[in-house]
């Protein structure tokens, strides 16, 4: 359907799963552009034969050059700073990549007439009350530097559609789990902690609600939007069901067969959003359905880390991860002891 697809952030968790899915589905030409930040890993594309350009999406000359050289007719933008806790520690890089970087991609897409798909997040809706499920038309009420930068990216995308007539779509995914996720995110962090018999630092009461979605469901949702979605529209993507973080933990501990005594309630994340939940009916109308419940998604993901120690052990042993873990958790765990 597309001649040549540029996947930005293709060495990250969801981008790498998406590249693998595109290849499985027979999409011939794919090019990855990735800065290889701490979260980007060439290992995520091990065994995958696609050109990988190492570079920054904020570099307009580079983006233009890559798009012209490879005759790109679709950009799917996964490249982002993605961790809420990192956005609390070091917010500026989030506006650089998630706002400025998105803007650069849009500008090149406009100049060269390239279809543009933005990978966004349900976090742009902010925390929601009661039994509401966010609709694509809901107001954006981001509350962390991460979600604020993603919301700004979405608004730029929509402005390019309205102002310049650029062919755009946006997907807003909920919390993804699965293979190749960086260890700072809760499911791989807690699974590997549990395997190593380390405490699991649960922020606050652990009653926050999330729609834990398998990454493959997210990727098939993105494909459905690319193939059948309406230009200019936004689509939520999620399992369509929520569970609490404590329930997520129980599933994970059951899967790796470790005791609940590893759980530690620690000081909460600043501005922690209590509940996200998306209404996915608009995407379902394109013929897509999630294949994994949150329970199945978490169990499948935890099993993958159990079976792939060679993937995550080098990260856990790296100086940068150890420094981050110490900064983020040492005081919290000490105070909880
Ligand atoms: P990730 O952190 O695993 O990967 C991000 C990738 O982007 C990395 O490979 C990194 O090297 C690359 N990158 C970062 N800055 C860059 C830059 N300036 N130029 C080029 N490459 C750069 O993230 P992920 O979890 O795979 O998320 C991918 C996208 O999906 C993001 O846009 C994120 O906001 C969105 N999203 C994530 C989730 C989730 O649960 N992980 C849920 C919904 C939406
Ligand atoms: P995370 O994986 O960081 O995703 P997000 O903040 O984008 O939803 O966190 C998922 C949930 O798990 C969130 O409610 C915060 C919680 N959490 C903890 O309780 N402890 C942790 O160490 C981490 C990383 C997250």
Topology:
Layout: E1 4-8, H1 13-24, E2 29-34, E3 52-54, H2 60-69, E4 74-77, H3 84-89, H4 92-112, E5 115-121, H5 145-164, E6 168-173, E7 176-177, H6 186-195, E8 200-203, E9 209-210, E10 213-214, H7 215-228, E11 234-237, E12 243-244, H8 245-256, E13 263-266, H9 281-284, H10 294-307, H11 309-317, H12 319-336
Parallel strand pairs: 1-2, 1-4, 2-3, 4-5, 5-6, 6-11, 7-10, 8-13
Antiparallel strand pairs: 9-12
Please supply descriptive tags for the structure shown above.
337 residues, alpha/beta, Rossmann fold, UDP-galactose 4-epimerase, domain 1, 12 helices, binds nicotinamide-adenine-dinucleotide, binds thymidine-5'-diphosphate
Would you mind describing this structure in some detail?
With 337 residues, the protein is α/β, with parallel strands linked by helices. It folds into two domains: 197 residues, NAD(P)-binding Rossmann-like Domain (Rossmann fold); 92 residues, UDP-galactose 4-epimerase, domain 1 (Alpha-Beta Complex). It is built from twelve helices and 13 strands. It has a seven-stranded parallel sheet, with helices on both faces. The chain is globular. The N and C termini lie far apart (56 Å). The mean pLDDT is 97. The chain binds nicotinamide-adenine-dinucleotide and thymidine-5'-diphosphate. The site of thymidine-5'-diphosphate has 14 residues, from helix 6 and strand 8.
